Amino acid sequence: MADQRALMFVDGENLVFRYQESVCRGAKPKEEVVHVQDTFVWHPRMTQLSHMFVRRVNYYTSSIGDDEKITGVRTEIAKTIFRSYQTESSYTGQIVPHVYKKLKNSQKTRTVDINISVDSMRHAHQQDVDLIILASGDGDFLPLIEEIMRQGKQVYSMAFRSGLDESLTRNVDEFILLDDIFFEKDKSS
Q1: What single-letter DSSP state applies at residue 29?
Q2: Which residue, of 2, 23, 137, 189, has the greatest Cβ tally within 10 A?
Q3: In this model, does residue 49 exceed pLDDT 80?
Q4: Residue 22 in contact with residue 174, Cβ under 8 Å?
């Protein structure tokens, strides 16, 4: 379906750690990638698929630090602009940051997953969206995906190959591999 009204929910914790893991294994990032260590990763093409009209990108992540540091992370993410293309026009917006404080010794917080679930379900029950895009390779989101689909919404998933729960690729309307968007092609293969 052309020009679907879409909202994107990005599990920033999942993506940034999978991205960093891929880079450590030798993947070469493309020039357009925006990366803040342990907090944020983005590529403009994530919202530029021609068949969807992304109205908002909600980016969920966590960071170690005091309130000033958390505010700085929010500000940095909000500076990132996304573009979404429709048949006749384009739409530009800023990424909406949802940044939570985490303990020093933890890598991932449940707060991110819970807030993605609540916010995406809220929109699934409303009639203001046709498509929900979940950027995460976390299989814990499968029950959420199933419920959103029961509400009559389409669900796309985006994730890196690293740490991907393969069941996500089979249980959504479309799966998009982010490795192809974020990394240079390996010339040896």
Answers
A1: B
A2: 137
A3: no
A4: no
Nearest to 63 by CA among 22, 118, 107: 107
As a whole number of angstroms, the distance between CA 98 and CA 116 comes to 10
What phi, psi does 47 have (nearest 5°)? -110, 15
In 3D space, the residue among 125, 6, 15, 7 whose CA is nearest the CA of residue 60 turns out to be 15
152: phi > 0 → left, psi -120 to 50 → alpha, else beta; which?
left
Angle at 32 between CA 77 and CA 186, to 5 degrees: 130
How far does the chain reach from its first CA to its final CA, in angstroms?
Answer: 34
DSSP string of 18-84? HHHHHHHTT--B-TT-EEETTTEEE-GGGG--TTEEEEEEEEEEEE-S-HHHHHHHHHHHHT-EEEE
Query: Which amino acid would we find at residue 13?
Result: E
| DSSP letter, residue 87 | S
pLDDT digits (tens, 9 = 90+) for 112-160: 999 999 999 999 998 789 999 999 999 999 999 999 999 999 999 999 9
> What count of Cα atoms within 13 Å lies in the side-chain half-sphere of residue 59?
27
Contact at 8 Å (CB) between 40 and 34? yes
Strand partners, 57: 8
